[in-house]
Amino acid sequence: MNQHLASPKANHATTVPTPVLEVSALHKAYGKVEVLHGVDLTIAAGERVALMGPSGSGKSTLLNCLSGIEPVDAGTIRVGHYALSHASESELERYRRECIGYIFQSFHLLPTLTAFENIELPGQLIDMPSAERTERVQTLLDAVGLSHRAGHTPDTMSGGERQRVAIARAIMHRPQVILADEPTGSLDSASGARILDLLESLSRQYSIALLLVTHESSATRICERVVHMKDGCIVSA
Amino acid sequence: MQFFTESRVALLLLRKLSLRHWRTSWGNYLVLIAIVSIGVGAFSGIRQAIRAASANFSLFNEAVSGQSDFLIRSAQGPISSHDLKSLAAVAASPDWHLVPVIESSVALLDESGVARQQLRLIGLDLLSLGNLPNFLERGFDISDGNSDWWSALGPSEQVWITHSLAHRTGLAQDDRIEIVFGGLLRAITVAGIVGSPTDNLPEDLMIADLPSVQRWAKRPAELNRIEVVVADTSQRADREFLAAIEARIQAQLPDGYRLEPAAEQAAKRASMTEAFRLNLVILSLIAMLVAAYLILQALDAAVVRRRHEMATLKSLGLSARVLFALNLLEASLIGLLGSIGGLAVGYLLAWGAVHLLADTVNALYFATSTQAIQLSAEDCWIGLSLGMFFSLLAGWLPARDAMQTPPAQILARGDWSPGFAWLRRPQIGLSLLVLGGLALLIPPSQLAGGAKMPLGGFLAAGCWIFAGALLSGQLLTRLARLLQPLSRRAVWRIAVSRLADGSSRHRLAVAGLVVAVSMVTGMFQMVGSFRGTIEVWFDVRFQADLYVSERGVTGQGNVNGIAPDVLHSLSMVPELAFMDTLYIEQVEGPIGVTTLAGADFSIWQEGRVQQIWLRAPGTFTEIVDAQPAYVSETFARRFAVMDGGAVELLTATGPQRIAVMGIFADYGNEFGSAVVDVPIWQEWTQRQRAINTTLYLQPDVAVNTVRDRLRLEYPGLDFRNSQELRTLALGIFNDTFRVTAALNGIGITVAFIGLLLGLMAIFEESAQTWRTLKQLGISYKKLLLTAGIEGAGIALAAYISGTLMGLALGAILIKVINVQSFGWSLLWQLPLGSFALLGIVMVATGFICGVGTAAWWHKKR
After folding, report:
1. What's this model's pTM, rounded to 2 decimal places?
2. Contacts of residue A122 in chain B, CB cutoff 8 Å?
3. Is the pLDDT of residue B299 over 80?
4. Computed from CA positions of residues A107, A113, A116, A119, in that sequence, does the dihedral angle turn out positive or negative?
5. Predicted-complex ipTM score
6. What is the total count of domains within chain B?
7. Which CATH architecture has domain A8-236?
8. How confident is the model over B516-535, as a mean pLDDT?
9. CB B238 within 8 A of CB B56
10. Where are the beta strands (DSSP E) in A164-208?
């Protein structure tokens, strides 16, 4: 077992009260431009946090760092029992497969897979047993109200339907945290509202922490806490 | 006005955007330019090489007499020196000189006695005032009684060679060399080197005094022709002047002689290789076509890379037309630079290929040597046009793709693949299939030398290849859909679902590969079938014990053969049961040159000599006033006597008619041959000399022991047993197809590079999918595996479609193009081993290309 990534199962009994996501003194620069200046952020298990801020404030960079896509220059990120600071590429891949769910503004469903297959994919990536996988996909399809669309490919679905599939996909593998990057940004207000309601209910139902990046203050209604970023720093929480 | 504004904008964008991309990715563009250069180079190189390898007749004239203007020939076979007095009136004019010539061939031996090279030996009257100074570079005054001009002739056993021959063989003046002439070994001296090193005289030319050649060749008093050189060479370009000279000579020419312009002879030679050259040009055009496919893939990849830039330009209001023009401009720039490079590459390639092609021409058509490669203005013009045309053709699809790029707002929503709706419609492919079938009904067109151009066959092949390419997308998606239910694991599911979806770019990648695969598998079949047929033919036809020919001579340039006295002495070999001796002579048929052969009909009719009979003797009835003859299939097809009939041939003794009595298989060349009984042949050709003979020994005789003994007794002859002859013939066969094999190799290599570029474009275009998968935590290994499966799937679909089309192409090549072009039927054989190997290599390469592409994308990211 790698020293940076402890097994979640091995520590399960002793780490229940620990915050699920901890970011400490995070620094990130692109060349000479420093984008994140010592970001500190903590999210408890099942907590829903909205992250707001103007363009260029560092929200997307922070999200990319949290998902392990961007390496950090300094500081630590701990999600559950995964410490990302010095993790290798394969360790980061495992972290993304097992620990987080990601929801994109533009859905990013795989265009050639059906709704069922898109949702099933994260389960396949963690080698979830076939029967369990099928049952969970059915459950999630029911939960997002798309059982009747299971065999459809994304190009035949509306934006709202696609985002619901994306949400189901994000929680398929039972992640500890969902990182949602403006999930309602590509939707009309009615569809956006339904997606927010769905996110809230699923977060409650499965006790998954949610970090919601948004520009819309109305979207913060499902969150318990709102964090503001400016010039690469958390300015209020 | 709008056109000018848009042109200005396109040029501005070319400078500000496209060329800046070139600067940042100069390596990519250098490769692209190099690809065009290779394509243009292959075409231009083969064109120059074949010209240099087969057009040395004019050079021969230059070597002999500066340049001949006319040739005088006898209408009754060879001219006799004794008859020259009848030309006294013609020779009297000061306006021209007559140069009597005898032409022969010798094999030059090296120190170990191995035949090194076949040379043409030209016998000239060295007393001819026009020639002697040319050879000895000194003046003579024959009228001066004190002059010792005769000493310049030296002993009779001497020859002059060209600088290029001296350079190639290392021979120098006064060297003693051994040659084989008419089946006899002879030692002679190099009397001198002709011309200067810069003269570019042929390297297979040896010159000797006319009486010496007549004596060596045992052709006393015989001349092949008399060359006529006008005295006032400054007026050569004046057609009226030459026409007047021609008319004057014609008026004085006695009966039994005919006058023909020297250029006509060169044209006749060139026309003999017309089908051969045409086939090579088509093959080299295929190389250009495959290069165009690579350019298409590369430009397409560039369009995908720059899609966001184009989308932004669209959002800023740039018209689709300007984007289209911008991309075509870029393609034409690549074409221009690549073509210029291609001319240089072609020049270099021609140097490499010229000897290869000269060997083939020697083996199949006539004695030839190579001349210096010359890049003419026409070569440059054709090369540039071809490069530009194919680059524009290749750039057209990516340019359309660029034109269809949506504005940035739409593109930002995710993966986007261009429409190319026609790639998804099977109707076009099916129509091309039908069109190809109809093209097969077009009859072949007649070429100048008597060969036929199978236009319909080529058209059908082209239509079917493109039909296969267009329909291959259907096969890809259907195949993937079949596999979909079986693909339960994530990587398989992703890869197979992407193939089942079949984006335009997937279809384009498969289509390009299909073109290459169908051509390669088609060629496999043709070469394999040809080889298989030749082997079967060998097994039937060559059952004699020993095959005898003049030493070192394996090609069509042999004009000596075996001297009659040598042949007679061979017939006295004690172990001999019987001999089958062959006599050949080129004669004029109703359309072009053909071969009139003489053989002992009695042993043919008794079945002691085996043939593969397409129409057995006795099938046709005899025709009054026509001599019975057995003809080759090529002859029968060429002169339309497959169902019997008579053909008139112009022989040395005038027109003679032959009646077809049987048709046998033969794979020598496309001119065909008619075999008559030996006495008839000798009467018609006025010749006695056999080209080769085969010895059938008595039963239980140790063949190799007899062979070894005869080799010692007849050092000027080659004795080969059937196995040795088979090896030699298959060696010639392999040499003949070396160019085809090389072009095949280029085709398949380029196709795989094309696949790699295609996959890169596919990967780049699907970047969002891969990014999503990375976000979902797919491992690097699985990412590579997914891409590998996708690459392998594309290659598999291309292999299946390409092989199916290759089978059709093979059928066209064997059943239509070969029959129409060369007049011979081949046994269609499928080289299943090569097919299977190609399939494995393709799928493996597709997998590797996919993995490589994913690794490249991952590294770049």
Report:
1. 0.69
2. 776-777
3. no
4. negative
5. 0.74
6. 4
7. 3-Layer(aba) Sandwich (3.40)
8. 83
9. no
10. 177-181
